Each structure stands twice: as structure tokens, then as C-alpha cells.
Amino acid sequence: MRDIEKTNVRRKQNAKRKRRRTRRRTAYVTLVAVLVLGIGITLSMTLFFNITDIVVHNGTDVPDEDIVALSGISYQDNLVRLDSAIAAERIRSKVAYAEKVTVRRVFPSTVEINVEKAEPVANISQSYGYLLVSASNRVLEELKGEPRAGLIIISGYNPALGTIGMVLKSEDEKRDNVLKTLTSAVSECNNEQIVSIDMTDQSDILVQFGEDVQFHMGSASDAVYKLQFAAEAIKQLIPGRKYVLTMIGNNQISEVPMEAYERYQQKDQAETSAPAVTGTAANAVPALTTVQTAALPVPVLTTTSEMPLIPVPPQTQTAVFVPETQTTSPQN
Question: 134-138, 170-174, 202-206 — which is least confidently predicted?
Fold first, then answer.
């Protein structure tokens, strides 16, 4: 029995020794791994991965060496310690025409700098001239005199901040989103007929196509669709004649000859401002009355084939077209 007890004691002691050895071995391996990792990190941030090549893909007019200088990156800087986002922002804040800048690390020793050039899309009217902006509302230049030829003029924005190289800000924050929607839509449509946009009334934005067509597009929602829709309608108008187009709902555009539209506007204004006389002739007191505006007093033609438009007879009709249906029916 004593031999058995001694054997059991020895086994327990041996098991404890093995567990101690295992713990010591694990601690030793962990310590060695930490030391090796620390040495590796230290070497990689000091001796290894130093920058020897800087490759620049530059779409702007700024020289490549100036782009590198503005980034703050130097040869022999450590690639691991390089903050790409900060380097890219340094370039973009100093180069007005840098629409998008990316800085990429290519191990073991190369940095790639890509600079995309901003394209001007609009002249923003302001009190002392114009601001030239890209599709992202980035201010590219200040124009003291005439607007940049070949680009649309946008009025009614009221810029509060127009620093070159920064995103344009309005006195009314809601107008920022409207402007970005419009400039992006104009850029996407790439329609050279669009001359100007008046966004003074955000619910009734006025677009001028050439010299002959005014388009009341309503709000800026679905701007690309509305501008393309109006462009299709304009193709079927009588050349050399002035028109007013108005967006009706989501899939209709009405067209009215300019002379008829102006006569109606003048008549409506005269009726609205005409004083009404009350009391007897002796003590008559003029009083202004409110007159409800009626629809244009002209017949309406509706055609429902795909993107067609019925030609407008002389000064007497408003053509309304609705895409995606099949019949044509006159209405009184």
C-alpha cells in the first residue's frame, strides 16, 4: 500500500512540474514573439520601406513637382508612417482644379499620387461677378467681369461663402442641395442649348433653352429626366418661334407660344390689380379685390404616343404630350 501511495505522490508531483514547464515555455515563446514583432515594427518604421519613388498622375495644369511638394511627401520618408489621407487633402486644399486626389502606398518603396481635374460646368451669379464651379459645387475661379463663355449661368443661389478651392455655400442651406442637383444634371445631360437657370423660386425653377424657349421645370427633383424630356419636346417646336414650356406632373409638358403667354400674363395682372368701387357715387371708395387666376383660355391637345409632340397651331392652342400611351384626343 505504501508503494502505491508513493507512486501516486510522484505522479502528482510530475504533473505539476510539467504544467510549470508548459507555462514557462508559453511565457518564453510569447516574450520572444513580442520582442521579434517590436523589433520588426521598429525596423520597418526606420530602416525598411523608405520612399524611393514618387509617381504622379496629374490631370491639372500644376507641375508634377509642385504636386509632390504640396503633398508634404519627401524621398526617404517612411512608407509605413505615411498618412495618405492627410497628404491628399493638402493637395486638394491648395489646387483649385483638383476635383479628386488619392495617395496610394505601393510597397516596398513607392508612392502613387493621382489628381483628377475638375471640369467647370456653371457660372454662379453673385453681386460682384460670377463664381466658376464644378459639378460638385467646388469653386474653381472668381470672375469679376463676364461669365465663362459656353457655360450656363445660374442665378437666385445667393452664395454666402465662395472661397476658391472650397465647396460653395449658400445663405440658405436648402439651396446647396438644389444647386448640386442642377449642376450635376446639366453635366450629365450635356445639352449645349441650356443657357441659364433661375432658381430664385425653388418650386418653379426656370430654365432657358437658347433664345426661344423658357422651361418651367418645377422643383429640382428628377432634374435629369425633366431636362431630357424638355429637350425632346423642343425638337418638335416650330423653328424661330418663341415658346414657354411648363412641366405638368411627372410625364407631361405643356407648350404655349410666347406672345400668347405674355398676353395672358398682362391680362391676369391687370385684372388682379384693378380696383373695385364700393359705396355711392358721392363717397365711393376704391377697394382692391382678389381675382382668382384661371387656366389659359385655349384648347388643349393631348397626344399619347412615345415622346411625341403635336405641332402648335398659330396662337390658339397649348400642346400637351404624355409618353407611354397610344391615342390622341382633343379636349375643350
Answer: 170-174
